[in-house]
Prior knowledge:
Layout: E1 32-34, E2 38-42, H1 49-53, E3 59-60, E4 64-71, E5 74-78, E6 81-85, E7 89-93, E8 98-104, E9 109-115, H2 117-126, E10 129-130, E11 140-144, H3 147-165, H4 172-191, E12 196-197, H5 206-221, H6 228-235, H7 239-250, H8 254-272, H9 277-283, H10 289-300, H11 304-313
Antiparallel strand pairs: 1-2, 2-9, 3-8, 4-7, 4-9, 5-6, 5-8, 7-11, 10-12
Helix pairs in contact: 3-4, 4-5, 4-8, 5-6, 5-7, 6-7, 8-10
Amino acid sequence: xxxxxxxxxxxxSTRYVEYTDIFADSSIKPSASIPGSLLLFDTFQGVNLxxxxxxxxxxxxxxxxxxxxxxxxxxxxxxxxxxxxxSNMLITxxxxxxxxxSYASTDLQYFMLVLYPKLSNQIYNDIGVTYSNAKLxxxxxxxxxAADQTLRMLNxxxxxxxxxxxxxxxxxxSYIHCLLQALVVENINIHKYNPMPLQGGDSSSRQYDVxxxxxxxxxxxAGEQRSVFFYAKQLGISSKYLSYVCISYSKKNxxxxxxxxxxxxxxxxxxxxxxxxxxxxxxxxxxxVSSFSRFFKRVTGITPKAFVKLQEKQ
Length: 314
């Protein structure tokens, strides 16, 4: 089987085709899901959705689909053009495309997200951009993944899956959204495509690259780094310029982004994983419990102890 060059063209037949939700088939069981919003699929428990689908006809998809290939290979037809997917590869298919699996190897291992439009739009709004424009309509993106990228995406996927399957708590939905934001930012960085900024900025500019790189760094380092200077230094810019860029694209400065990211991690540790204040403080690299409590109250308006008590009453 010859390699097929990755293609990002948006060519599409003009014939009328109804949208279908192929994932609504009663025989298809996701690994985890938020009904009507998000579906997760993976082969870690031996379920191979792509093998199940590969004999089916082409379908017009209205969801955004991201497939991360870990091992094996598959042939994906997008608008009747074949693409070979192999190990350490990411493919993102935007809505509107005609898509079909025409081959899936028996050793295929992957994880996959299906984002329905409403949730997808919310996530893009959260990071200050939109993909609902002609530039990205009917597009698909295929990119190789470095080992660290695959691991980072897999960790995010597993965190999202764990949260969906775990017990309910007041801020569960918000935390899942934060994880999805991080995953979408990583996706954008890997493919290097440019969603349109909501605030009217230039998505092809250096500023936009800085903004996306900052969000990616924040996801990676928020557990141990809370200084705007740290992130600015990693990006090779001043702290003032980093905050200016963040405000331009999201109406939130860099310090607010960092504080919110740290607090989301803290809340997950205390509520989901039942960490004590001391354990949470140590995990997030605060020097003392009192300094963590002050930081928590400054960002949320309440102390971590009060927050935990509120969750216990839910």
